[in-house]
Amino acid sequence: MSTGTTGFAEPADTPAPARSSAPRLLRAAARRLLGAAAVLLGAATVAFAALQLVPGDPVTVMLGPGTAATPEVKAAIQEQYGLDRPVPVQYFTYLGHLLTGDLGESYQLQRPVADLIGDQLGPTVQLGAAALGLAVLLALLAAVGTAGRRPALRALSSLAELLAVSSPSYWIGILLLTAFSFQLRVFPVAGDDGFAALVLPAVTLALPVAGMLAQVLREGLETALGKPFVLTARSRGVGSAAVVLRHALRHAAVPVVTLTGWLTGSLLGGAVLVESVFGRPGIGALTLQATTNKDLPLVIGLVLLSALVFVVISALVDLLYLVIDPRLRTD
Amino acid sequence: MAITGPRPLPLLAALTAGALLLAGCSSGTGSGSGAAATAGAAGIDEKPVQGGSLTYATDVEPISFDIHVSQQDITGAIQRNVFDSLVHQDDKGEFQPWLAKSWEIAPDLKSYTFHLREDVKFTDGTVFDAEAVKANFDRIVAKETKSQYAASLLGPYTGTEVVDAHTVKVNFSEPFAPFLQAASTAYLGFYSPKAIKENGSKLGAGGPADVGTGPFVFTGYTKGQSAVFTRNPDYNWAPPSANHQGPAYLEKLTIRFLTEDSVRVGALSSGQVQVAEPIPPADVRTVQGDPKLRTIATDAPGANYALVLNTTKAPLDDPKVRKAVQRGIDLDTDIQSVYFGVYKRAWSPIAPSTPYYDKSLEKSWPYDKAAAEKALDEAGWTARDGEGYRTKDGKRLSLEWPLPPAEYVREQRETLGQAIQADLKKIGVEITRPRLDIGTYIANVYGGKEHIADYSWARFDPDVLRLYFNSASKPSTGGQNATFYEDAQLDQWTTTGKGTFDKAVRQDVYTKTQQRAIELGLIVPLYVRTAVVGTGAKVRGLTADPNTWLAFHGAWIAK
Asked: What is the ipTM of this complex?
């Protein structure tokens, strides 16, 4: 197929209504993949550039002030990582390695970056998924339960959401730990030891997200409930619960899905704090260590990972739009 | 969102220099020695309990577990339980046999011959012998190892000769007296030669690959969470002066990494961990007030946290101005209020627990605002500007003392800095504290471009005085003399002290060095860091080595 450089041009041979949707789908997928590759390249470049801007000799910065390392050791480290070569050469060498799937080796941990990320990914995915599920559930309960009625309950729920959104997750974590771990001793303090140890970190990570989602969802619901189609539905004798769940919710869901996608990406940032407070292994803890130590290959690997997460999530969100809103299914 | 409280400082052996671990001495505030002392005095009459497991929470997680590579205190502290050394340094700084039964030092201090114990085995079954010593020392200096610390401990090492199966001769290209002390540290501990051969590049990752001869076996490591150790049932070669011989009592030791102070303290008070350290000064009283808990406090040895004055940068090139800074800070009040009486005010560049500490310096340079003002008047800084700062020839008396990024600052040193700033303002000296990124900070401070630097250096040896005051110890080449002062006497004394085992000579030169450094106003020692460990009331027999690191070999849990 002679795909032009103008990616958006419609193929000339598809005016016939005959559903040639397969090549079209392929094109769409190819466009997506190209876009994803561009995002990843951009992320790798920005991360590389940002770390180049850190003043000082990278080896000295990496070893920290007052190191006992001799100039010879520093030279050996510099040579091993090619830091003595010109920056463009370093950049292209790095990209070359990336293309072959080689993320390099961590300066400090002296292990392949891919292995390190692989080892730490599990606990964070577990934490993130649990937090996301919990956040969506809480937001749904709060918004659906209070939208457009029960003013007192609604006010109370709004206040709780505001508190959840505006409290630093670090502080929420300490608070939850003090109450449920140090005082009541229901949950263990920290670590990655099964379900009980997952509860508090997941709640900590979920609360701010739930607060934000609930606010947006409630507003969407209330707007939708004021629309004429609701009146129509009601006049057909549909109960108020069914109106909310069957009609209004679908309307309100689109912005919430967008927001959820964005928040899911930001969970990775939240994980840095939560994992450090709870002493859990994971990507967040690894990120903290990598950036503190200016561990260039590891930082770039982690940046690529989060870029990838964003790309995947935005693809999922686009798909979800189609599921939720029939108007978007254009053929 | 910033994490408050002191952060873990993975790399900064120097700024923090802090022995991150600490030591035993009976409870209460530190009585001063970095000594091997026992927790739980009540346990004297009890019969030690075999078995059981203990969880210990600490604040820093090692970056590399490889003792031959890492420069972190925490690596040495944790791995001390897995690796033994040739000799043992006792709490008075004397050397005792350990894996070496005896040793001879050549009169020119260029070679050391060690006679090794013959009954020592690594936990993989390999015999500990002369070849093992050679394999380890050669690995440390090998270029591929990229040792950040251990190689510097070996100094002018030229090689190890295997004299017979259990005799080794370690050679140096020049006289090297510090070798015995170096050989007693965990950084010159011994891996099984088999482990080096099979997993040489993976030893930093921790876990079962790290095979030593110590009382514990490194059985598992989950990065970001914990390290697990189990008892070495064959262990029977503790240093003769240890409080316990034979295998460890504990079946299992788990080390948890809890970086948040409040979480670590909470885990201890709720009984989820049995030992936690450090306990931050603000929490010490709470922990002491809890009947279920005990504290062990010890002063860290080595160079105290201090203001190091750059004598090559005006106006600090004037000794009178330096003296004014030294006497114009109300340290007693500042240290008491910032550290709740847990840390003590320092009087010497080195801590009281360091061998050859000069006690006569105590109270010899108290806060004296009038004397400080007089010194500044004499130095010609008599005029005042609109903000009350002194001026000379129209120039304000202003000193720059930069701050590194927050993650490199620990022990509330920034708060202490504010108190010092306020004190010096009272005598008309302005202190500016620009926040620099770490690259610029290192370049400026170690390049002599700043007026004041601040750091400490934990080491159980008065040789830190050479590191701080010998003019050859240039920061550009790995030294720590940010005073940039060149003094023939200080050079001579510290070089003499490094090159001899004669106690009287060492006593003499180190006393003179401490006094002269204070007298010349090269340094303003601020506080003696007191390391506080919190333990559950049933923990017994927990000891610390002279580096103030916890040793779990003799620890047990009462019924």
From this structure: 0.78
